[in-house]
Amino acid sequence: MAASMVKTCRYVSRHGSCVLLKQAHPRLTLRTKFHCTSIAHNGLLLSLNKRGILKDAFPESAAQDQLPQLLQSGSQTVYCGFDPTADSLHVGNLLAIIGLLHFRSAGHHVAAVLGGATAQIGDPSGKTSERERLSADATEENSRSIRESIQRIFTNHELNFHDSSRKLGTVTVLNNLSWYKDWGVVAFLSDAGRHFRMGTMLSRHSVQSRLKSADGMSLTEFTYQVFQAYDFYHLNQVYGCKIQLGGTDQLGNLMSGHEFIHKVSGEEVYGLTIPLVTSSVGDKLGKTAGNAVWLNRDKTSPFELYQFFLRQPDASVERYLKLFTFLPLAEVERVMEQQREEPGKRLAHKRLAAEVTKLVHGKEGLESAKRCTNVLYQSSVQALEEMSDEELQELFREAPFHELLLEPGTTVIDACRNVSAIPEGPKGYRMVSEGAVWINHSRADKPEQVLIPKLHILSNGLTLLRVGKKNFYIIKWLGL
Q: Whole-model pTM?
């Protein structure tokens, strides 16, 4: 895959949400926005800025002149990095991927770099304490899982959202371990370390905040910005990358990359920052914030992802439609107008949830989310009958799953007792007869009732048993 990027790389970022910079000044202020006076008027950069996907650009001249010219001169390569500190990316990373998708749709090539090496060091940015050390084996497994996730999302975008009349750029996934694994620490410090100044490194906000903390900062974390800077330099030298994309929390690390490249090669490089996605109360949506919504199905199901966006507050839905979907802005406005006319129908929320779920999990994932929604909130027996074992277990994650042999004459109370849903003896019998047990959304208050196919046992061989309001049990019948 790397070979396909040679002579095409022009746009770069590092670590799930990163950024790059230009300009030789170490104290560069990044506040440049894209304005209508720019050469990018009505172009890709201005479009992304209107959607809220781009926050700042640097250096100052690049936003209005050099960077738009570079992008218009031919296909460039946009790069973004992701440290595999977990086995899945989360919603906080999704906007960076969407940024890459927009560039790819415009004909530019995109690259995602997995931090197989840097994940073992740990990025201190935005952290109050040092990350737990990851083993090489864990990092390798996390990298494999995230690679699959990124490739899945790009495939879903191409199948479900891309205009086939427009030529797509290429997609490449790299791992920075490949250029560090055979390099000794002495040689690395001799070659790269001499270009970094302690005063500048100590001045970074991420360093300062940690040095003032009770735990301080380890040498390992302190050197992280050196490795991230070298990543960008490596891509610039090997693939010609000149542009970096990423979140605002990576600013210090990205400044280090810009300064390193400028000192060593004098290359002109550019950066674009994307906003950090926050919850309704302003918390960062990331796994360390304690409220992560993951992009892998085994950690957050399509139903849970769908519900997450469906439940967003009214004040956030228009912004999220612009950020997380590929709807034209005119279509977003039309959807919001429908929402204002009939707010009770929550049409904008449903459109947002559907678009994001289809991007992350494909059409099948969206249909699964809708089936689960109908089962849980519409009490739809038809939707329940269409569900797979996997969907039921995703929907009722805490519910015990039992496989039972269906014997002739099995009754309602037999089923309940076989899965330990009710107590033994008269108390359990009373619970059934008094209406505490529901089977497939229907009350089952006759303990001696023999289970009836299509009523108690659905055509997919499943039974959803509920005792009380929240105690669910899933039964898969064998021998049908």
A: 0.82
